[in-house]
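Checked the freezer inventory, then went back to the computational side. Two predictions to log before the end of the day. The first one is the construct we discussed on Monday; recording sequence and tokens without edits.
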Amino acid sequence: MSNSVVAYRYAKALVDLAMEQKVLDPVNDDMGFFIEVCDQNDEFQRVMANPIVRHEKKRAILKNIFENKVNPVTYSIFDVLTKKNRESLIYPIAVEFKKLYDDLNKIERATVITVEPISKEQRAQFSKIVEDATGKKVELVEKIDKDLIGGYVLRVGDTQIDTSIKKKINELKLEMA
């Protein structure tokens, strides 16, 4: 069975447990926190995925970082996965959990990439565009990329709208070649 299928099953079970315990929002926050820790620390993610590192060591690391900072339901899943030698699945489970949470709460994540930070008005416009297209609440992630020169790139799921100057220059290069 592939890791993504296993991660989905664990995430679904965790969503069900969190709903039963009425701690879905805190567990969602904890999963976001775990993803953030992994994204900011490559070494942590490598240690969790490394089969050579002993499970007791991984459990101690998770305990030191998360035990007093996350909901007991969240920590219990970390503990269970460590006992079952499946620490490498925690990150994919967290990602799947966030997707399931977003689906339950009708949230659409969109990313807007611009040359400079956008204003409140622009943020509202981007959110409205995505909300109108999807019918869901929007969580807008803003990124800066000076290489765009101007314009923006808006990503929603598998769809991308690219109005950047960089793209237009590349298209001109292709036409002239």
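The second is the one RB wanted added to the comparison set:
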Amino acid sequence: MKFMDAHVHLKDRNDEVLDVDALLQEMDASDIERVFLMPADSRRSENERMLKEVQGHADRFILFAFVNPYHPDCVEWFEEAVKHRGVRGLKLHPVLDAYPADRAYMLDPLLEVCDRYHLHCIIHCTSDAPNSSPLQMERTACRWPNVTFQMAHMGGCWLANDAIKVCQRNQNIYLDGSTVSLSAVKRAIAACPDRFLMGTDVPFYHFEMEKLKMKLAVSDPVLFEKVTYGNMRDLIAERGLEL
């Protein structure tokens, strides 16, 4: 059986090198067919490194630019990367880069690019108040109904129930279960089976850890295939994320 992973970073794991070749080896060992890949932070140098190193592997990696909206040329750089360098989505981290997840004047120029090119946006969304709650993300997603949004970590430890409610009432929001508790994943899949995506947050975690969590969360084989493969496959097709 093959799997897809909606949350992977190109970054070494402590003292262990996890470059593209090593990442592909881990993916092959764990039957991971394809991943959403992004740098570990929004430094332009890390984005450039990723774009350079993954050349020739479009069949395995769908690329997300990790963008800091404070950077003065971020919109122009992002659109150029979409048009000419294979980027198919946007990663935002309101906690790491210190801005509210619903700050319209900062985020809307980037999301306008996502809207124009039919892209997918991943937003870090944990219990890290005041910048990154599910309700803040919902306000942003409601402004851009034709953009799909992925709630990375779906509210973390304390706000998973809020995340589930937000997903239920917004058809353009997907839940990403990386680093989330088993009980929260079970609740999310029961409530939103069509918009739950398996994610590991590699290299901070391991593919096999998340696969085990999913096996513990889902006993029905049809539903298991859906949340570990089918939903992401369908999202890729609907958004046209394949090059």
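For RB: The beta strands are 3-10, 32-39, 61-66, 87-92, 120-124, 148-152, 173-176, 196-197. The first helix runs from residue 20 to 29. Let me know if you want it refolded.
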